[in-house]
């Protein structure tokens, strides 16, 4: 998601305030176009930990800030190169879609459509079970 930063959130003058900033997070000034970095600092921390322990990053080890605070657990983050990861299984579902795919932009974020069939006479057996669950 991109958004324009209209506000000056940081105090660039006071040295004590500058010490409060988290060194792992960039602080941008007013007038900058902002974009999600997928919590690159959390990815780096997990990569360093895994490298120290001579292992690969486990599925679900990296949790982005938006994923952490999502009350419905609707956000999933992971390695799409691993076929057995949770995010790869979700991306393999027929309801998976990405925005502007026809333009070949290859976005990293994809979405799952929620299908509901209000007409139970037209529903298949699988649809009827999903309607009862969701």
Layout of SSEs?
Blueprint: E1 2-4, H1 15-19, E2 33-35, H2 40-52, H3 65-69, H4 86-91, E3 96-97, E4 111-112, H5 125-133
Antiparallel strand pairs: 1-2, 3-4
Explain this structure:
With 134 residues, this protein is an alpha+beta fold. The chain folds into three domains: 1-35, no CATH class; 40-79, no CATH class; 93-134, no CATH class. It is 28% helix and 7% strand. The protein has helices at 15-19, 40-52, 65-69, 86-91, 125-133; strands at 2-4, 33-35, 96-97, 111-112. The longest helix has 13 residues, at 40-52. It is extended, with a radius of gyration of 20 Å.
Task: Please give a quick description of this structure.
This protein has 134 residues and is α+β, with helices and mostly antiparallel strands. It has five helices and four strands, in the order E-H-E-H-H-H-E-E-H.
Tags for this entry?
5 helices; 134 residues; two-stranded antiparallel ribbon; alpha+beta; 3 domains
Q: Compute the gyration radius: what is it?
A: 20 Å
How many discrete domains? 3
Could you say which structural class the secondary elements and strand pairing correspond to? Answer: alpha+beta
Q: Low-confidence stretches at least 5 residues in length (pLDDT < 50)?
A: none
Numbering strands along the chain, what is their spatial order in the largest sheet?
A: 1-2
What is the share of helical residues? 25-40%
Distance between the termini: 28 Å
- Largest sheet at a glance? 2 strands, antiparallel
Q: Overall mean pLDDT score?
A: 80
| Beta-strand percent range | 5-15%
Continuous helix count: 5
Q: Can you write the helix and strand succession as a string?
A: EHEHHHEEH
Overall shape: it is extended
Strand tally is 4
